[in-house]
Every structure is written in structure tokens, then in C-alpha cells.
């Protein structure tokens, strides 16, 4: 193996310091970027997806970003890291980082920026934005009625539009690199288009819809349209079901 690719702790630490523009160690034992880049280049094709199930210091994400810049390739990487807390005495804590995940995410962002990459998208594991039916042991009809009433709107009280859009997209099998954009349509409801390679869907999370508001979308039977169940009356639901592939949340 090329000596320059071997593990040199001093060099590894220097690379991280240079990227973050700091003088002290942010990571205790960072891995060699050049070594991981060399292994990635050897083991993957130019447009492969590289998955790091234990991102740690985020070395692999930096290696892929640098490799793309060097070789003109389009490798994508997914880094997964639990929110392991950083000790208060550590230099990284003093710099404002509270978890290994935050630090790893920042390193990936800096590496992509330095390599003129296409960007970084970060997700945090959290409870869903859609209510889940809880089993009821009570036989009191009023208890069941109260549960049904709570599900009049299936969205959780603190739901966020982008979070719901991504939850729907992932349930539909869209990739984490799908494009989400707000449509420029001169109507009061807000419509979003989610696109992923050769497929897409439109979603609206407004509280109410009308046929006139949806008309500018020009929906066809091949189009998927997602909206809140509570936004539809029976007539509109029937019309949309005939026009497109209607799904509700």
C-alpha cells in the first residue's frame, strides 16, 4: 500500500483542523481521508451510492466529496450517526457542538462546500407527523367517540409542512435526493412538487381545497396528487379521484 495512504494520526488531525479552521482537536481519532477515498475509488463506480452506517467523525463523507471533485464523478453518500453527546470538557463542546452527529454533519457540509459539491441534505430521526391509532381497551362508547374525534385530522398538532412532505415522499419510495419545490401558481393554496428521476407527485397541505384551485395543476390519470382528507368534500374527492391518482393524509 502507498505509504501516503497509511494511517498517520498527526496528518489526519491536521486535515480536520484545516477544514474547520481551528487549532485544537475536534475528533480524538479521525480516520485518513486519502485512504478512504482510495478505497472508495477502487470499490465503487462513478455514480454509486456509498453508505456509512456509523459516520463518526464524517471522514467517509469528506472522502466521497473530495473524490467527486478530483475525478469528476457523481457518487452520493449517506452518513448515519446517532446523537451521541459530546463531553463538556471536549474542545468540540466549547465550539458549540453538542453531539457527534452535529459535528459529523458540519464536517460533511464543509467538505462539500470546499469541493464545490451539489449540497447536503440532513434528516433527524423523529416521531412521525401523522397520528397513530392507539388501541382502546375501554368498552365505553364515549371513549371510542373521543378517539374518533381526535382523528378527524390525521396530522399531529405540531406538524410542519416540509416534514410531512418528506414523510409522504419516503413512504412512496422516493429517494433522499428527491427535489422538493413550491409551485408558482397564482392560487391561494400552496402546492408542492416532489420529483425523483422519472416520477413525481404534487402535494397540498392547506386546510381547504376547491376544484377551481386545483384546476391550474392540469392533473391527469397518470399524476399522483396528495392532500389532507379534511380538505375535501365528497364532491371534490369524487372529481379528483376521476382526474388523477388521489391520495390523502
Summarize the structure.
This protein has 249 residues and is of the alpha/beta class. The chain folds into two domains: 3-114, no CATH class; 154-248, no CATH class. It has helices at 9-20, 33-43, 59-71, 91-94, 100-114, 141-150, 161-171, 211-214, 234-243; strands at 49-52, 76-79, 179-182, 191-196, 199-204, 224-227, 245-248.
Explain this structure.
With 249 residues, this protein is an alpha/beta fold. The chain folds into two domains: 3-114, no CATH class; 154-248, no CATH class. 36% of the residues lie in helices and 13% in strands. It has helices spanning 9-20, 33-43, 59-71, 91-94, 100-114, 141-150, 161-171, 211-214, 234-243, and strands at 49-52, 76-79, 179-182, 191-196, 199-204, 224-227, 245-248. The strands form two sheets. The protein has a five-stranded mixed sheet with strand order 3-4-5-6-7, covered by helices on one side.
Largest sheet: 5 strands, mixed
pLDDT averaged residue by residue:
88
For the terminal residues, how far apart are their CA atoms?
Answer: 55 Å
**Roughly how much helix do the residues carry, as a percent range?**
25-40%
- SSE run: HHEHEHHHHEEEHEHE
As a whole number of angstroms, the C-alpha radius of gyration is 24 Å
Global outline: globular
Q: Approximately how much beta-strand content do the residues carry?
A: 5-15%
Strand order of the largest sheet: 3-4-5-6-7
**What is the strand tally?**
7
The low-pLDDT segments are: none
Tally of DSSP helical segments: 9
Please tell me the total number of domains.
2
Q: Structural class of the helices, strands and pairings? A: alpha/beta
Amino acid at each position: 500500500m502507498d505509504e501516503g495512504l497509511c494511517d498517520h494520526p498527526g496528518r489526519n488531525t491536521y486535515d480536520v483542523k484545516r477544514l474547520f479552521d481551528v487549532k485544537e482537536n475536534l475528533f480524538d481519532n479521525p480516520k485518513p481521508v486519502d485512504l478512504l477515498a482510495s478505497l472508495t475509488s477502487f470499490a465503487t463506480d462513478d455514480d454509486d451510492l456509498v453508505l456509512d452506517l456509523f459516520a463518526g467523525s464524517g471522514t467517509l463523507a469528506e472522502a466521497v466529496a473530495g473524490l467527486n471533485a478530483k475525478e469528476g464523478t457523481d457518487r452520493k453518500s449517506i452518513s448515519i450517526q446517532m446523537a451521541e453527546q459530546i463531553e463538556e470538557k471536549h474542545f468540540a463542546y466549547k465550539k458549540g457542538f453538542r453531539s457527534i452527529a452535529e459535528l459529523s454533519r458540519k464536517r460533511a457540509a464543509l467538505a462539500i462546500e470546499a469541493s464545490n459539491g451539489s449540497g447536503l441534505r440532513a434528516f433527524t430521526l423523529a416521531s412521525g407527523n401523522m397520528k397513530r391509532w392507539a388501541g382502546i381497551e375501554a368498552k365505553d362508547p364515549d371513549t371510542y367517540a373521543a378517539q374518533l374525534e381526535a382523528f378527524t385530522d390525521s396530522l399531529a398538532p405540531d406538524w410542519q409542512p416540509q416534514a410531512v412532505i418528506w414523510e409522504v415522499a419516503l413512504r412512496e419510495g422516493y429517494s433522499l435526493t428527491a427535489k422538493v419545490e413550491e409551485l408558482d401558481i397564482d392560487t391561494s393554496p400552496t402546492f408542492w412538487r416532489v420529483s425523483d428521476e422519472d416520477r413525481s407527485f404534487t402535494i397540498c397541505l392547506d386546510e381547504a381545497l376547491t376544484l377551481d384551485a386545483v384546476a391550474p395543476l392540469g392533473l391527469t390519470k397518470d399524476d399522483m396528487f396528495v392532500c389532507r382528507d379534511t380538505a375535501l368534500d365528497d364532491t371534490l374527492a369524487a372529481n379528483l379521484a376521476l382526474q388523477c391518482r388521489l391520495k390523502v393524509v
